[in-house]
Write a structure and sequence with these properties.
alpha+beta, Elongation Factor Tu (Ef-tu), domain 3, 3 domains, 13 strands
Length: 259
């Protein structure tokens, strides 16, 4: 007989910008505008992008500043003129994100690094992409735009309905999630489509995914605790939960208290 795991209450405290490490850029997940790739330059081990921004986006922007480009934190290396900024991207980042597929004329979601005390309209985002997702389908009920996105099993364990996730730098709420089928859905309102590139995405497109850090901590902690307590019995518990259409990761679903 399997030991009965006790009730698990996971309280997720969302970090504020005041609690980040010094000099570590953070973003709110609220896309501030769209940028267009103006030029591309390949050099050994990296690619340089020159982006053109909407008027006013670059006001006060300096070399060394951080900008989230489709959810990838990049550093300004050169300011060639008003409304323009250059960024260098290493080969590894090109391979792990959608930036490697960009061409002149491609459009990106952009957000400048948040300042201390900034209002978190979405949820704290680091700009470090965890994995690539694939746009599996698009539905368009009245006044909505629904994206179904497939992700690897290694990261699907951190995705829960009503939880947060960052897609191409935008903080979104997960509407539905199917862990066995490895997909989740997000619903986009017209304003989100207007302010982002999501309206132009097509089935099969790759998307940059950053999971919510608080959820990751909770899920990993629960898994480690069960492994420590159950040891060789853990596979039996996993099999039992699988018969119920669940997994060990479901036990780590964060409980968000109201208020």
């Amino acid at each position: 007989m399997l030991p009965q795991p006790g009730p698990l209450l996971s309280l997720v405290f969302v970090p504020t910008l005041r609690h980040r490490a010094p000099d570590t850029p953070m973003f709110t997940g609220i896309v501030q505008g769209l940028a267009t790739v103006a030029t591309l330059t390949d050099r050994p081990g990296l690619r340089s992008f020159e982006l053109a921004f909407a008027p006013g986006f670059d006001a006060g922007l300096e070399i060394g500043a951080s900008v989230a480009c489709d959810g990838v934190c990049l550093t300004v290396t050169h300011l060639p003129g008003p409304g323009r900024a250059c960024f260098d991207v290493m080969q590894q980042s090109l391979g792990l994100t959608t930036l490697g597929a960009l061409a002149v004329g491609s459009r990106l979601n952009v957000e400048r690094a948040a300042k201390d005390g900034a209002e978190i309209g979405g949820h704290p985002i680091s700009g470090h992409v965890d994995c690539l997702g694939t746009l599996l389908s698009i539905r368009q009920p009245e006044n909505n735009h629904v994206l179904r996105i497939g992700v690897p099993a290694s990261h699907m364990r951190y995705v829960f309905a009503k939880g947060y996730i960052a897609i191409n730098g935008a903080s979104l709420t997960v509407a539905e999630a199917d862990r066995r089928a490895r997909w989740f859905e997000v619903w986009l309102i017209p304003e989100t489509l207007r302010m982002t590139t999501f309206g132009a995405k097509q089935v099969g497109d790759a998307l940059n995914i950053e999971i919510e850090r608080g959820t990751q901590v909770v899920v990993d902690t629960v898994r480690d605790a069960l492994d420590e307590r159950l040891g060789p019995l853990l596979p039996a518990l996993e099999a039992l939960l699988a018969q119920q259409g669940r997994s060990v990761d479901d036990l780590g679903a964060p409980v968000r208290l109201p208020g």
